[in-house]
C-alpha cells in the first residue's frame, strides 16, 4: 500500500484532462437541467390533471432510476428504435457526450422539480396575497415574488443535489467518455497500481467538490444578505 | 414479452437473479453504513473536540469523492489493503476481494459518512430533558440509549434515513462497472445477445423506480408508528 509520487506526477496531465471532461459534463448538465426542471415544475403544479400527472411520472422515473441505467437506455437503447436510428435525431444521439448530457439532465432536473415545487409551496401565502393586493399580475407575482423566494429556500437542497450529481458523473466512463474516473482506471490497467491513480483522482474530485461548495456558500450569503447578522 | 419470460426462451430468470443480487448488495451496504454511521454519530457526539474533527475529516473524504472511485479502490486494491492492515497483527492472509464485497465495503463506508452526520444531528436534537430525566431516575445507561434516546432520534432521522436508502440503492448500479453480475449487468448481457437493449434497460429502470416508489408508503407507515405519542400541531 504505497503512493507513488513520481507516477502521480507523470500521469497528472491525463487525469487533469479527465477532470476537464467531468467539469464540462457537470456544468452543461446544470445549465440544461435548471430550465428543464423549472418547466416540469410548472407542469407538476399545473391545475390541469394530465399535466400534473405527467410531471409526477417524470419525477418518479427520472429520480427513481440510477443515472447509469438512463445512460445505457439513451446511449444503447434508443439506437434500437427505428425512428431514432433513421431520423435526424441520430446526428445527435450518436455522440456519447450528447447522450450523457441528456441522461444526466433528465436525472438532475427530476430533483430540481421537487426542490422548486417545495420552495414555491413554502412561500408564505401572505406574501402572494400582498403582491396581488398591490396589483401585480399573476405573471409578475410568479417571476418577481414566488420564484426568487423559492430559489432562496431551495438553494441548500440544490447544493446537495448538485454535489451528489457531480460525483455521479463518474459513471460516464461506461459509455466511452474519458472522465476523471475512467482516466484513473486506464492508468490502473497500464500500471497495475491500484492506489496512486485512484487516490490522485480522489484528491482532484475533492477539490472540485470543495470549490463548488464554497461557490454555493458565497451565493447563499449573497441571496440572504438581508437576514444575515453582519 | 417473450424476451422477459422465465426459462430457456427469455431472460426473465437471469434478470430476476440479477435483481436479487442488487437487493442483497443494497441491504448489506445499508446495514454496514447504518452500524458504522451510528458508531460514528456516537463517537462524534460531544461538541467540537478532537473526535468531532476526526469525524469531519472522515466525512469530508468520503462525501468528497464519487462512490464509484471508492468501489474501484476496494475492488482493485482491497486485497492489499486487508493484507497491510492485518500484517502488523502477525496474520499473513492472501485473499481475493470479490466485486460484491468491494461494493458492500465501499457503499458502507461512503454512506456511513452521510448517516453519521444525520444520526449525530438527530441525537443532538433529542431534548436535553430526556437525558436529565434518565439521570434523575438513575436509568441504566443501556436503557437510556436503547429505550429512551435512540427511539426518539430514530423518529427525527427517519426522513433522512429513507432518502439515503434510495440514493444508496441507485448507487448499487455502479458496482456492475466493477464486474458484479447484478441486474444492470444481466440487462446488459441480455441486451447484447438479443440486440434489444431498449426492452431490457426499460425493465431494469422500472425495477428501480418500483422499489423507490414502494419505499415511500413503508416510510410513511414507520413514521406514523414512531410519531405515536406526539401531539399534532393545531390539534
Task: Please state the average pLDDT score of chain A.
Answer: 89
The CATH topology of chain B corresponds to MetI-like fold
- What gap, in angstroms, lies between the N and C termini of chain B? 52 Å
Number of E strands of chain A: 0
Radius of gyration of chain A: 21 Å
Low-pLDDT runs of chain B: none
Q: Name the biggest interface.
A: A-B, 42 and 42 residues
Count every beta strand of chain B, where a strand is a DSSP E run of 2 or more residues: 0
How many structural domains are formed by the residues of chain B? 1
Q: Percent of residues of chain B in helical segments?
A: over 70%
Whole-angstrom Rg of chain B: 22 Å
Proportion of helical residues of chain A: over 70%
| CATH superfamily annotation of chain B | MetI-like
Individual helix count of chain A: 10
Largest sheet of chain B: none
Task: Supply the CATH class of chain A.
Answer: Mainly Alpha
**Which class do the helix and strand fractions of chain B yield?**
mainly alpha
> What is the average of the pLDDT values of chain B?
88
